[in-house]
């Protein structure tokens, strides 16, 4: 992966000059906890590439480490912050909201915290009056609930809306805007930051990247992903029981993953009861003899049942499904049913789509903890006057990644990597191509995950 | 309810003359545990109806109590038994299989136990060679798994098949056939018993009634129902979070319940986050102003979100859905979407169908225990030479119900009863009829649950 | 069991003359839902005992059916109610609080509802100022939490306190006092009602009986019990894994059950991995050869591991443990360790006491639903002016039981009944007595459960 | 941290010359999946330390990357492997056993796989006859169970035993010994490898490090830790409910953590309901005014309840507890009770020790997946003839760490790091010292975790 071209400098609103309130809490917090901007984490942990860089005198790419700074840019007593969650639901949203509010309140003494309703929409007059005043009491217990305490939406991102949002921020005197959202939100956040700069405002925009699919570039692990895989295994367990429980039983599960098959591949490894895992990153044929329908027929003949997991983005790999704009799970169901009907073989297919049961439930302990770190570090970055950044886990550290570096690129399963190799071993599915060659669809600049896995 | 016409006599193969092996286990089991055929449980626990019966000199209806008998009909050392599970999956199937095998083996010393694969199909030559030899070791741990250890199917019940099944039973020398299945299975079991009698064979047919919908006549509680309601609440929790998490969010959950809405109604009471519960037993209008679409629109205006639960059998109440033979959940989704599109109101509808994730998972502790009693009592009944009966919970006792009494009648939610009253209070939905009158569809001889509830 | 001597008449404060507000809600609720005081549920469902009663001209014992009455005694607009939870924690307390508040508010329009803190203590000046004003908003979501939203305590019940409580009720003008608590609470409630009567006050006292042990006389099933058994199985699963995972591994689990072993016995049936279940109702020897220590040694020799479940009340059966006033789990642990040390046999004993993890967690769906019925029916009873009663499940109906009938008697596992027979079969433990005779400790007037089981 | 002195060279038995069988599976696996020994992962991801190393011409420390090698040392058709699990139970043991067996069987075609019973003990004649023959069928489904399928023990590690183990390995012709165990097991493994070398045998010893406490040096994350934290939160939730539910309620939870407080600290962050977290790494006073007992008294006065989490190793910080060799949870319970008794303040303390319920349960999905990678990479390393190594996650890659580098050093919570800072913020506990100064006990060469956190 080409890490050399990444611009890792984090923009700031200006110099942070004020002593952090955290410092004053002598009895509660130890002084050494502050992180200096000079502490940087290597991006590339590969030794030979590093040696090449050293030989060639190239710079060594690194990210700024996240954490509380000794000096803050904002005066907490006058600061007003806004929080907004954008895009689809994802386990952990409420954990992050809570962590931000607790850190702003107890860590920095910030008392004006607004929760914007329903994503970007919530800045517009139709919804902005519904905003919630946030404080520790209000957010107490919200981490036990799924969904978003603030509400969310897949909002409009057109220029006109951007202006209205900045109007709102300006008018209501917001100093830091915390945006929890996916790639679209990062793009909107960049546009917002442009407009803020154009107007000469002093507003920091800090993001915690959200993608249940775990597919954001330069983000090793996104919150909610562990929980999603855990819940997906319940669906696979059910599908496996349905398949085993009937003659020629087929359990077909559609999982999330528009651009990347991390949930499908990782959940496959958790239970190892899946026989065919289909992800956007690896093309396959449907037609016999070696395509999915042929391999499925062989499997039924040999073992009498089969479990298939398909990620939603596989649609792009099936021209007919893409053309008809059909849900890939239902499309596959139809293809399988008509294939076996054509051969007069009776099958028992059970179709499970657990998507909304996964997105909407509360985070597990692993994501609870992870979100508490993400939320706090977002607050630390904002208080220090940093902007246009997102909080990311990288090489087992939390770091600051400039939005510009991450936006508009997708992280995908590496078809030559550890994760997919594990899936091939667990399923024994081989190349589902009539020429028996693995084919990888054009990736459009996708990047691979650290360590070849989904960072489990 | 008319209990007076029920014939509660349990047919037998002949006199039970042999001392039960349970009796000999002096050191392990206490003698008083045996139940005599004279112990009977009142069917009707209503005092005034009882007093009327006494006044009028009518007989008092009662069921034979289940449990181990002092004498057995079969000689355990020579007995061969067969177990079969029929119809759709239901949590607890494996618990019952295990309980039967443990009781046959340890309680009675029966060593020949066959597990038939895939329901009635499994008696036919295509599948019968796959039969499993069952013993305590083989069934150890199966209660932790969902599905059916033996496999199941919605099998053929035509006369020809009945003959083949009896051929199999006769040829393989089966003494007791344990059938775990629903109303269709009870009908098949009755036909089998007829054919057995015609041929003069000595084969007992004992059933444990299975219906995840909890809708079998003269059965207070069917196994798997508690588990199903528990799992359904997870879907409702998710739908509620999705609804609350978006502007004009609607969570629509389709639950099981072909003839009876017990799962939908009971799960509604568990969480109390549902706004509209639709069950087959209560008709409603779709059209505004008071039908579902109007009431939903009002709810969105007032509260901004809504959760709807619909039981699959509601299809029969919607002529258009019935005519098109569409899944009622998807039909409603379409109707709601087009209603609001027609009014140019943007909504966020999320559709959840958890059916196969509910049917296929393992039983909770409550059903584990319940199934262990059902399985053991089925064995005791069979060993005593009783036949054509099912094991049922009634008035908090386990009893023997003749198949003839229960078959072909459905138990339904009482629209005037405690359960539906609770749902109306929890949802506040009122009569979703344009004339504001509750209308109950013709029931075709349905019966109501004991105590007016689903026996929680 | 002697049901004939039970006085089942429910005291009232006076005639209920006002039309129930529920009646007016024509569009929301169907009229037929009202229950008349003439509807009564037979207590004894045994046919032969009934026939004997008829022959001898004896009265037939029955309970008044619970549910909404057509007329109320109290005027909802002026009524003030108080709720209090007493004794130890139990899953479902919050469900009942919520159900009561929702029914009082939405069903009857009662607007003054007070939550008393920390049980009976909360009426005393030290705590009474902390009382909570309850309404639907305040109780929204509390059913997802364990514990008691109001707090609880094992309070003082002396005469002086009783007077202070009635002072409080009188002074604050409470019309109905809802008490959720165990046998001690029922006794206190009776004393309160006496004092109320003495003073000529018009205050109704209605109880929902709480006992995680499921041991209250004339109550088939107490709320929280299903949840407790479910959570107990997790402890057993862990103990089983620990036992199997080590040479001579012993898993020892102490479960709740001061007077009755229902949790221990029922959880044993759920998993069937237990080898010795010890309950207060059945005496046993410790000493070899046939006592627990001998049988345990035999089991280790044969199978290499063992799982033991002991109910806390077993302490009363072990003179040495009783004398030393030791926790029976820790006592047994000591006895086992020293027995094997004396024989120079190395064992691996793991001790698990999950009590507080069981009591404090939230109710499962089965108890959620059950509690919603209990809470609502308590409100209906109170509104009708009934007093000195508790809401009980009996013969699958909810009924009114006079406190006087239930108080001070304990329901216990029947050593000759279905539940204990199931335990003996599941464990194979036999009579753990050196004379190989089962011995039942003196019961002090204990009663047996309906159907011989714990009503699973 | 001083990474420079680490010797990262992995010993081998000899040159790997044979083509890996994985290579031949053209249709199933892609060729590029092989990892070369030249692929190395930087140990230290800190930029400034790296720059210093470059400036000073020092070598850059790195680990060999784990994964399948193109050439194997062993001939699979003749190879015999042994698996053993040592020490206490930990979630995920069965997942690793299964992953190893599946990879050996399907990946390499190894057919002789032995499972040794009960840890090191299992090599001795008393137990070795109980060894299990392992294959895919035998290990199917074991990942759904907790505990160890093979059994485990805290075995003897004396020289004599080491010789007997090597006798066994030699006599039974084992080629690779897979040891899953903690620090003690790593020490035993080193001794075994010494003895193997002394005898000139060709036996590889490969370890997957096990520590539920997550405290092994040079191992970012140990399997079972995520699961342990998840289960610990249930205990905290219960304790919190108990504390809130009573006047002056105190919930005291003892968690695992002999040398390191990762479970206690991380679980504290998951729920954030804890008020005092005590770990071995940070000393505290018991005595008032600022020690635990004083701070607890203050908390009760202000808030009426408190939750305390204590890691078992805290015992070492309390001289009196250490001297009496008491369980620190029970010791603290005693101290708290007598403190408040002395002040005549009534408290309600509930004590929860969930240790064995955590250790013995099955792994969650996150650990399922992690274990599947660990097990497979251990097999790849062994097949390549590598020895004296453990499989570790580091910088989000799986790597080979020489046993010699990791053994006998403990990883601990950094009292100046992100995790402990988070705990101080979540609890607000401050320095529980009468001089209000944080004191860190002597660490004896402990190392800190990557990223300052427990790698959540």
Mind explaining what this structure looks like?
The structure is a homotetramer of 456-residue chains. The first copy, chain A, has helices at 21-24, 47-55, 93-107, 125-128, 136-139, 159-171, 183-198, 225-244, 262-271, 292-303, 319-324, 328-342, 355-359, 365-383, 403-406, 418-427; strands at residues 18-19, 40-42, 62-65, 71-72, 80-85, 112-115, 132-133, 176-181, 204-209, 249-255, 276-278, 305-311, 348-352, 389-394, 397-402. The first copy, chain A, is of the alpha/beta class. Chain A folds into two domains: 18-222 and 361-406, Rossmann fold (3-Layer(aba) Sandwich), CATH 3.40.50; 229-360 and 412-452, Rossmann fold (3-Layer(aba) Sandwich), CATH 3.40.50. In chain A, the strands form three sheets. A nine-stranded mixed sheet of chain A has the order 2-3-15-14-9-8-5-6-7, sandwiched between helices. Chain A has a four-stranded parallel sheet with strand order 11-12-10-13, sandwiched between helices. In chain A, helix 7 (183-198) links the parallel strand 8 (176-181) and strand 9 (204-209). The relative contact order of chain A is 0.16. The interface between A and D is large, with 77 and 77 residues.
